[in-house]
Amino acid sequence: MALVKPSRRHLLTGFVATALWPRRALAQTRAQREVLVFYYGWYGTRVRSGADIHWLNPDPARERIEDAPNYPVGGPYDSLDPAIIDRQMAQMKAAGITGLIASWWRQNDRTDQQFPLLLKAAEAHGLKVCSYVEQAESAEKVADDVLYLHRQYGQHPALLKLDGKPVIMLFDRLMQVIGLNGWVKARRLIDQQVPNAISFVGTANTLKEISARKSAFDGLHIYSMQFETADHHWIPSLWRPAFYRDWVKAQAGAKVTTATILPGFDDRLQKDRTGRRPTVKREDGGPFRRQWKAAIAAKPDWILIVSFNEWHEASQIEPSTAFGMRELQTVKDMSAQFRH
Q1: Which residues pair with 54 in a beta bridge?
Q2: What pLDDT score does 308 carry?
Q3: Omega before 335 within 30 of 0, i.e. cis
Q4: CATH for the stretch 34-339
Q5: Which of its termini does the chain have fewer beta carbons within 10 Å around, N or C?
Q6: Which pLDDT value is given to residue 184?
Q7: What pLDDT shows up at residue 18?
Q8: CA distance 79 to 49
């Protein structure tokens, strides 16, 4: 789900965020610690959905998918299959993950059809769910989508909450399409209908963007960690601690602070991704574990994992024929350290 690399100054510039966040003074109590994973429900199979959806020319005999570097254990699956969802939830729970950030694209599409299935399964497994709104045609359309989500699902007990309100997270495409002013307008339209009823976590890619956007959101996160990780391939031992320390420090005063990690990244099989692309090699799993340690040391409230099952970009921790359960075991080990 990566976009083009954002233009930015180096993230290790000194910065301390002191401004207040919306609708509150500086936090007196911290948000509950969570380990959350980005999740994608767009997959389909011929048997269940009549076509291979997001699995390009799968070849079970060779364990190969044309547009994905890795192959899932058990082969391609259908995201609308309750048995698949139950299996995934069980894997998350066993790994110490507390919730999932579910990619949501539009009303009545596959991700929307799947969302109530996720909520039902999450409740059964003791997990939390929030939607990750990915599209932004206009401020009015964003407001309409958010209000739809709130009307349809806002009272479900499995929803992730912050400050007692359900959380909706927003991908950076929103800022790239409608901009900060567009989001401020969308939030105003939302609050006119359901005043102060939802906690919003937006995207920021730099410390400068945190400073510029913090007054418009209840929290911020970075998704596209592949750019940072790939850029600092040669000096990761110096980069990791400083990056996470400064990143979390910059969020001071938020309702929640976040740190994002990823086990690997390779989207070069995507035909629409041209030019030099960032790649993050998994090696023996050590880089992922070291990211965990640096993130934990920075003391965020939430650690976000990219991703459970973004197979196109090879960032998945879902079991693969290449890596087995290794990444889930790392999550289990490190989430226990983080949350206790």
Answers
A1: none
A2: 99
A3: no
A4: 3.20.20.80
A5: C
A6: 98
A7: 35
A8: 10
CA–CA distance, 152 with 108 (Å, rounded to integer): 11
**Whole-number Å distance between alpha carbons of 146 and 303:** 24
The residues pairing with 99 across neighbouring beta strands, listed in sequence order, are 36, 128
Peptide bond preceding 307: is omega within 30 degrees of 0, i.e. cis?
Answer: yes
Q: How far apart are CA 119 and CA 136, in angstroms?
A: 24
Q: Could you identify the residue written with the tokens 């009272």?
A: 155
Whether 34 and 304 have beta carbons less than 8 Å apart is answered as no
What is the torsional sign of CA 328, 334, 338, 340? positive
Residue in the structure block whose two tokens are 């799993």? 285
DSSP per-residue string spanning 186-247: HHHHHHHHSTT--EEEEE-SSHHHHHHHGGG-SEEE---HHHHHHHTTT-HHHHHHHHHHHH
- 10-residue block means of pLDDT along the chain (340 residues)? 46 37 50 98 98 98 98 99 99 99 98 99 99 97 99 98 98 96 98 98 98 97 92 71 96 97 96 88 95 98 99 99 98 97
The CB-side HSE value for 96 (13 A sphere, CA atoms) comes to: 19
Tokens matching residue 23? 């609708």
* pTM score above 0.90: yes
Q: Where are the beta strands (DSSP E) in the chain?
A: 34-39, 99-104, 128-133, 161-162, 165-170, 199-203, 219-221, 258-261, 302-305
Per the CB < 8 A criterion, the answer to whether 119 and 104 are in contact is no
In this prediction, residue 276 carries a pLDDT of 82
The overall longest dimension of the chain from CA atoms, in Å, is 58
Q: Answer positive or negative: Cα dihedral of 257, 261, 289, 159.
A: positive
Sequence letter at residue 31: A
What is the rounded distance in angstroms from the CA atom of residue 279 to the CA atom of residue 281? 6
Question: Residue 234 has what pLDDT?
Answer: 56
Q: 51: buried, middle or exposed (CB in 10 Å: 19+, 13-18, 0-12)?
A: exposed
